[in-house]
Amino acid sequence: QRSVHLHPSILSADFSRLGEEIARIPSADAVHVDVMDNHFVPNLTLGLPVVEAIRRATSLPLDIHLMISDADRWAPGYAEAGAESVTFHAEASGAPIRLARELRARGAQAGMALKPATALEPYLDMLTELDMLLLMTVEPGFGGQAFLEVVLPKIRRARQAADDAGVPVAVQVDGGISAQTITAAAEAGADVFVAGSAVYGADDPDAALIALRDQAAA
Ligand code: DX5
Ligand code: ZN
Fold first, then answer.
1. Does ligand 1 come within 6 angstroms of the Cβ of 175?
2. Binding site: what residues are annotated?
């Protein structure tokens, strides 16, 4: 069995009772927190004060996905807040290598995300600077969108490049992950899976995430 991780996205949870919603997913490998600024993406969610409150409300690791402009300025604060990983978008950083190093220096794993149409190849040389590469499988901004199969070859190329170079970088997929799509993403080489609506849309979110993880590992 491959080692796979399932990170439920609380974007699909009830924001008025986040602590209780996170308590419904005790088997999660981490809690995926989507930070949006109404500028990098056309949606607005939450920021550092809420992340700090979530940090106090759960002992699960926090996987912070920053969909915000000017990531170089804002991302380090999320590492300071005690996130296990902080993922910024390559499209929103002027100095991604420097930022990844700064995140690691502040004790977080460094993640970098690419939108579906952003090419992988310009970033292959910096995989050693990253703990996680997030390949978006929807346009970032909203939960509940359909998985973009067009990204599957990019997942394959990322996994191949990391394996060829012997770089232990995780390949995360986010967007449209469900029982219908997770096997294709896993077969392409993803090993960290974000799921929002497929977890929180279920009657039993913990059972749903366990079933998805088992399916990805099969
Ligand atoms: C979208 C977010 C995702 C979102 C995924 O921009 O980055 O994390 O919550 O939601 P689903 O799993 O419903 O596609
Ligand atoms: Zn996300």
1. yes
2. 9, 32, 34, 65, 141-144, 174-176, 196-197
Q: How many CB atoms lie within 10 A of CB 67?
A: 25
Query: Is 174 one of the catalytic residues?
Result: yes
Beta carbons within 8 Å of 50's beta carbon, 6+ residues apart: 18
Reported as a single tens digit per residue, the pLDDT across 105-136 is: 999 999 999 999 999 999 999 999 999 999 99
Question: Which residue, 197, 154, 202, is CA-closest to 176?
Answer: 197
Residue 114: Cβ within 10 Å count: 20
Q: Which residues are part of a known binding site for substrate? A: 9, 65, 141-144, 174-176, 196-197
Mutate to test the pocket of ligand 1, among 68, 132, 138, 192 (most ligand atoms within 8 A of CB): 138
Model pTM score: 0.98
Residue 195 φ then ψ, to 5°: -145, 125
Cα 85–65–42 angle (5° rounding)?
A: 170
Q: CA 96, CA 126: separation in Å to the nearest integer? A: 9
| Structural domains in the chain plus CATH codes | 5-217 (3.20.20.70)
Q: How far apart are CA 24 and CA 40, in angstroms?
A: 30
CB of 195 closer than 8 Å to CB of 6 = yes
Dist. CA 65 → ligand 2 center (Å): 5
Tens of pLDDT, residue by residue over 26-39, are 999 999 999 999 99
